[in-house]
Design a protein that fits this description.
By secondary structure, this protein is mostly helical. The protein has 2 domains: 7-73 and 87-116, no CATH class; 135-159 and 173-238, no CATH class. It contains 7 helices and 4 strands, in the order H-H-H-H-E-H-H-E-H-E-E. Strands 1-3-4-2 form a 4-stranded mixed sheet. It starts with 12 loop residues before the first helix and ends with a strand.
């Protein structure tokens, strides 16, 4: 059966030769007793469509096949000790290696195709379990009551202070800043009473900002809040 072959479809003479072997369904070791050589030489009619370098590779393989074919028609001399591999053995080895690489390349292409079909997500996109927080012997209501006492204390201090000229300043208390301040104090003191967080507070804005920062630290599980009995001092510690 004749095959229409375009040499530009092949990566080189080994690629063409292996394709002919596959079409003829013969083992690589049997190509010299099959019609593969004739089929390869017939495909050389399209060598003019290639550039000089590529054409020379195909012509060199044709010469090798003709040499092997002619050697098969002549009596083979006895092999000499230490003789290098014959052209037949060299070509079979090259074809076997090329076949292995081509099959591996096809497997890699299949893996690449499968990888393109996957939809990946960045680690931060995966939902994480909610952080645990600890309120030992204390409820949020109790914490709120303690905050209200601090807030009333600051309010009374503000109302009892006569200030002839009130200076209006821009709010400089941020949630992240207050969180960092609380954590620094807890790292230094290891533990603080709830009321100590507000020592030196000069305004209700500052008290509210510090309290919200504390709630956020508790929510994130970074701070542990404990109270042994109702109305006793609330103790704060870093969650180590």
């Amino acid at each position: 059966m004749a095959y229409v072959v375009s040499l530009k479809q092949f990566d080189g003479p080994l690629d063409l030769l292996l394709t002919l072997v596959s079409r003829a369904k013969v083992a690589i070791e049997e190509i010299f007793v099959s019609q593969i050589t004739e089929q390869y030489l017939a495909s050389m009619e399209g060598v003019d469509e290639l550039d000089m370098d590529a054409a020379s590779e195909f012509l060199q393989m044709a010469a090798t096949l003709l040499e092997i074919k002619s050697r098969a028609l002549l009596p083979a001399p006895p092999p000499e000790e230490g003789e290098e591999e014959s052209p037949e053995q060299a070509l079979i080895r090259q074809l076997t290696e090329y076949k292995a690489f081509r099959e591996l390349s096809e497997q890699m292409k299949g893996l690449e195709k499968d990888a393109r079909a996957l939809i990946t997500k960045l680690p931060e996109e995966y939902p994480l379990p909610p952080p645990t927080y600890e309120l030992t012997g204390l409820t949020l209501e109790g914490l709120t009551r303690a905050f209200n006492r601090i807030l009333k204390k600051i309010q009374a201090m503000e109302e009892g202070t006569e200030v002839p000229h009130r200076e209006i300043r821009r709010d400089t208390f941020t949630l992240s800043g207050c969180m960092s301040r609380i954590q620094r104090r807890l790292r230094t003191a290891e533990a603080l009473h709830f009321s100590q967080l507000f020592d030196g507070a000069s305004s209700r804005i500052e008290v509210i900002s510090v309290f919200l920062a504390l709630l956020e630290l508790v929510r994130l599980g970074r701070v542990v809040v404990k109270q042994k009995h109702v109305y006793e001092e609330i103790l704060l510690k870093l969650n180590r």
